[in-house]
Amino acid sequence: MKTSYMVVYTIILVLLLAQQHVKVSAVTCSPAQLSPCVSAITSSTPPSKLCCSKIKEQRPCLCQYLKNPNLQKFINTPNARKVASTCGTPFPKC
């Protein structure tokens, strides 16, 4: 039962992330780019190298994501902060 909730949660997160596309400077802000980080954010799995590279790439967009109520509940979490820290990307102060 717990696994099915996690699958549904992950699918919802990916769908929400896929809906958001905004351009900030030279970076195209797309929360869907953070999909390699879903397992690290939703569990205690360490982030992959791909996840870390995507977090660094999307760093200019993180404040914008934090201001979005649909994304904030996924991005403004202790696990998301831990993933960012593990990847060497400071969590933004917006």
TrEMBL record:
InterPro entries referenced in this protein's UniProt entry, alphabetically: Bifun_inhib/LTP/seed_sf, Bifunc_inhib/LTP/seed_store, nsLTP2
The keyword Signal appears for this protein: yes
Entry's Gene Ontology BP terms: lipid transport
GO molecular function terms attached to this record: lipid binding
Recorded coiled-coil stretches: none
Keyword list, A-Z: Lipid-binding, Signal, Transport
Top-level taxon of the source organism: Eukaryota
A matching Pfam family: Tryp_alpha_amyl
Signal peptide: 1-26
SMART domains: AAI (SM00499)
Sequence ranges assigned to domain Bifunctional inhibitor/plant lipid transfer protein/seed storage helical in this UniProt record: 29-94
PANTHER family (UniProt xref): BIFUNCTIONAL INHIBITOR/LIPID-TRANSFER PROTEIN/SEED STORAGE 2S ALBUMIN SUPERFAMILY PROTEIN (PTHR33214), BIFUNCTIONAL INHIBITOR_LIPID-TRANSFER PROTEIN_SEED STORAGE 2S ALBUMIN SUPERFAMILY PROTEIN (PTHR33214:SF69)
Protein name: Bifunctional inhibitor/plant lipid transfer protein/seed storage helical domain-containing protein
